[in-house]
Amino acid sequence: MYVSRLFVHPVKSLGGVSVESYIVDRFGPQWDRRWMVVDEQGKFITQRQLAAMALIKAKMVQDNVQLTAASGEALEFSAADFNAGEDVTVQVWRDQCVAKLGPAHVHAWLSRVLGRPCRLVFMHDACKRSVDESYSGPGHTVSFADGFPLLLTQQASLDVLNGYMSINVGMERFRPNLVVDGGLAWEEDQWRKLRIGSMLFDVVKPCSRCAIPTIDPGDASKQPEVFKTLKQYRSQAGEVYFGQNLVARGGGRLFVGDQVEVLE
């Protein structure tokens, strides 16, 4: 088995970036979900509330993030544009974090493109949002991702899922950080410890899914067949699962083409 694709999602719930490699730091893949769109009260906004977020594409140019709206209107920023900003308390699920508020022109661009008042915040290097220790053990931190630093999916599992449906969906809908090819469908459910390239990872929790995979990133339309099919074939204890959450045993770099070895 090997890594066939790697993704970074700089802004939570906006477009992802396909890359050939990335550094894994204590937040997860470098720059992954370090930025987040929030409302005026500091609560996170995702495609669950605003499907049009799927239409904003992202690109990384060195350490700069470039966003492009469906209209072609573009915005570029970096961590340095936020580090001198005001400290604000923001909420992502049950967690509250102190983040850095971005420049006014960034908020204005997002509010105009998304059609509602919103702001962009950055998780600065000193922020420590802890992972749920009941799954991962102590000491792990995460960015603005839903709960864990990395999400792994298997291409074979998506192929089987697509075979159950009248449509084919791309892996981008499931917003993984790494995609594994060459394995058997759903065998990732049994994995507990992996060596990927030169790095070691613990597989800590299956990823419970919401309605976001039903959103077509091409036009933001909703295709409920996706969730209906997941619910039929991938339900357990009232949750719907696709993919596995990982934590790394230290830092390192992953590459497309890295070999994947199941250790436990």
Report on this model:
The longest helix is centred in the middle third of the chain and has 11 residues, at 104-114. This protein has 264 residues and is mainly beta. It is globular and about 50 Å long. The protein folds into two domains: 2-27 and 131-262, M1 Pyruvate Kinase, Domain 3; 30-122, no CATH class. It has helices at residues 80-83, 104-114, 133-136, 155-163, 225-233, and strands spanning 2-8, 17-19, 21-25, 28-29, 35-38, 57-61, 64-68, 74-78, 87-92, 95-101, 119-122, 150-154, 178-181, 193-196, 199-208, 235-236, 239-248, 252-255, 260-262. The chain has five helices and 19 strands. Strands 1, 2, 12, 13, 14, 15, 16, 17 and 19 form a nine-stranded mixed β-sheet that branches. Strands 5-11-10-9 form a four-stranded antiparallel β-sheet. A three-stranded antiparallel β-sheet has the order 4-3-18, with no helix packed on it. β1 and β2 (17-19) form a beta hairpin.
Give the CATH class of the largest domain: Mainly Beta
Number of helices: 5
In sequence order, what are the helices and strands, one letter per element?
EEEEEEEEHEEHEHEHEEEHEEEE
In angstroms, what is the radius of gyration? 18 Å
Largest sheet: 9 strands, mixed
Name of the CATH homologous superfamily of the largest domain: PK beta-barrel domain-like
SS elements, strand count: 19
Structural class: mainly beta
Number of separate structural domains: 2
Helix content: 10-25%
- Provide the low-confidence segments as ranges: none
Q: What fold name goes in the CATH topology slot of the largest domain?
A: M1 Pyruvate Kinase, Domain 3
Kindly estimate the percentage of residues that lie in beta strands according to DSSP: 35-45%
The CATH level-2 architecture of the largest domain is identified as: Beta Barrel
What characteristic shape results from the CA principal axes? globular
How far apart lie the N and C ends?
15 Å
